[in-house]
């Protein structure tokens, strides 16, 4: 990492389309969490939801499309792009398709959020929901079936496309190295932590890191740690269900290089750990990250608190990069998010109730601290009378009506 914060800017001038606003994401110091965890090293988050389509996968979608156009596999206005994805690669492809005039079909496992589906539709993509990973009816199986029977259909295939890791080699890595850090004595990456889905992110980053190590053998080696959900086989363990989206598989994607020297260590993280860390980042760092970002942070903390991570954790000059792949926009309807980060007792809420002399009327309801969509509705019904007695009922139509 090098550069000067005064002359670094992530976008400047007029961009020709949203595709130019892919990547160029900020590296943000997670200082509050670092301090609360008693870590001496710097925790730095590469915050990918700032990218145009909202995730790290915009980068690979853009590169896969541009390279396929160069070699004639994709013809704007004619080709149909089909991709099996957990949603974010689809978002990048749908974004490129909307701008370049491709038809786009996304095959999406049932587990993936409604938010992803509706955002994809808004961009004009067609969606097929699929039941599972490993049958002919899986998102991959259905994508192939559609491709084989549709003229001009192309699967760019993030699982095997070399442009997936190369997007990170050529964009994510140089961005990290160029991030402003003129006040850092050490400008190298000591530890980098990322979740693995296709493995494109971690493989591309580690390829770039290892090449740099060859070019500068006098510099310290970077430790590369991959994070994997409990229930995925990539980092070991039995296949099973888990709720975090975008990372983990029950097969090894072709682009993933799971062993050393690419990846030094794997850390397993469960859903509870991932979602707790997601909420912590939103609450303490004001970063609206998604679930797999919580996995990455949880994995980083587990590693740093383990004996292997001690020398980095206790070094005030060490830089730890954590890839935060997407934002909570994708998960607003999920129970883990609706449950919120607040505990059941909250003195401020009690005080507010006391002052205004009634329930607060928000999703937290009666102060149990356990909101849910169902509870929110009940709470709404229960409070309707009370609130409208005090405030008079305000309807959206009334507000809109006034400005007509
Ligand atoms: C939310 C999220 N996190 C992490 C990843 C993992 O990235 P990669 O496929 O590069 O391993 C993905 C990939 O789709 C994702 O959607």
TrEMBL record:
Q: Which reaction does it catalyse?
A: L-homocysteine + L-serine = L,L-cystathionine + H2O
Q: Which pathway is recorded for this entry?
A: Amino-acid biosynthesis; L-cysteine biosynthesis; L-cysteine from L-homocysteine and L-serine: step 1/2
Molecular function via GO: cystathionine beta-synthase activity
Task: Kindly list the biological process annotations in GO that this record carries.
Answer: cysteine biosynthetic process from serine
Names of the cofactor(s): pyridoxal 5'-phosphate
Q: Which EC class does it fall in?
A: lyase
Q: Where is the composition biased (Basic and acidic residues)?
A: 395-404
Region annotation Disordered: where it falls in the sequence: 361-404
Q: Which residues form the Tryptophan synthase beta chain-like PALP domain?
A: 20-309
> Which ranges of the sequence are coiled-coil?
none
Record EC number: 4.2.1.22
Asked whether the UniProt record includes Chaperone among its keywords, one would answer: no
Name the UniProt key words of this record, in alphabetical order: Pyridoxal phosphate
Family to which this protein belongs: Belongs to the cysteine synthase/cystathionine beta-synthase family.
Q: Report what the protein is called.
A: cystathionine beta-synthase
Q: What species was this sequence derived from?
A: Tremella mesenterica
Classification lineage: Eukaryota, Fungi, Dikarya, Basidiomycota, Agaricomycotina
